[in-house]
């Protein structure tokens, strides 16, 4: 995404722009599903082999397929994303989707999950509960929180955002 696509506001200054370098397929919040699937599998394993009891095995299989599909969807979305951070807001843009722009003053402090090689993910909290399994989205579509996924030199970007938040207060 180029700077012209973002549309800076008057007196707004660009701090950083980039795109994901490392795109995770499995998020930390997804790992909560694995013990549940194992528990269901062990609970149902000794069930008799009649047609009615086989239906019970379909539920964990569907959950597993949805879990895999969610990872693939996250990967494809992150691959087509780009990010812009200004001294006043965070902008996330995906090809073929709307632009998500949130003011730094409306967001909570940035949280950094750093990975090997300096890449990482920066998330924000809006003061409400983070949603089911730590998701960054509430029920109403307008409340989506920006998430800078798989960015290079994430610690530096985190520090830039934290400094910009403090300067805007």
Please characterize this protein's 3D structure.
With 169 residues, the chain is an alpha+beta fold. Helices cover 35% and strands 21% of the residues. The strands form two sheets. It has a four-stranded antiparallel β-sheet with strand order 1-2-3-4. The protein has a three-stranded antiparallel β-sheet with strand order 5-6-7, with helices on one face. β3 and β4 form a beta hairpin. α2 runs antiparallel to α3.
Provide a concise account of the structure shown:
This protein has 169 residues and is of the alpha+beta class. The protein has 4 helices and 7 strands.
Main attributes of the structure:
single chain; 169 residues; alpha+beta; 4-stranded antiparallel beta sheet; 3-stranded antiparallel beta sheet; 4 helices; elongated; disordered N terminus
Number of strands: 7
Overall pLDDT score: 75
Decide which structural class fits the backbone: alpha+beta
Distance between the termini: 28 Å
As laid out across the biggest beta sheet, the strand order is 1-2-3-4
Residue fraction in strands: 15-25%
Question: Which geometry do the CA atoms define?
Answer: elongated
- Radius of gyration over C-alpha positions, nearest whole angstrom: 20 Å
SSE string, helices as H and strands as E:
HEHHEEEEEEH
Total helices: the number is 4
Characterize the largest beta sheet: strand count, sense, and whether it forms a barrel: 4 strands, antiparallel
Low-confidence stretches: 1-5, 129-142
Helicity level, as a percent range?
Answer: 25-40%
């Amino acid at each position: 995404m180029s700077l012209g696509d973002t549309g800076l506001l008057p007196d707004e200054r660009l701090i950083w722009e980039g795109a994901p370098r490392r795109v995770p397929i499995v998020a930390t919040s997804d790992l909560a599903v694995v013990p549940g699937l194992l528990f269901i599998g062990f609970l149902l394993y000794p069930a008799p082999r009649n047609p009615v009891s086989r239906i019970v095995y379909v539920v964990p299989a569907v959950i597993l397929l949805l879990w895999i599909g969610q990872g693939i969807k996250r990967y494809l979305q992150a691959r087509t994303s780009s990010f812009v951070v200004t001294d006043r807001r965070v902008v996330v843009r995906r090809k073929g989707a709307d632009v998500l722009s949130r003011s730094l003053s409306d967001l909570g402090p940035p949280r950094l999950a750093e990975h090997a090689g300096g890449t990482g993910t920066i998330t924000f909290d809006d003061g409400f509960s983070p949603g089911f399994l730590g998701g960054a989205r509430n029920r109403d579509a307008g409340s989506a929180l920006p998430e800078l996924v798989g960015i290079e030199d994430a610690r530096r970007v985190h520090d830039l955002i934290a400094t910009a938040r403090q300067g805007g207060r």
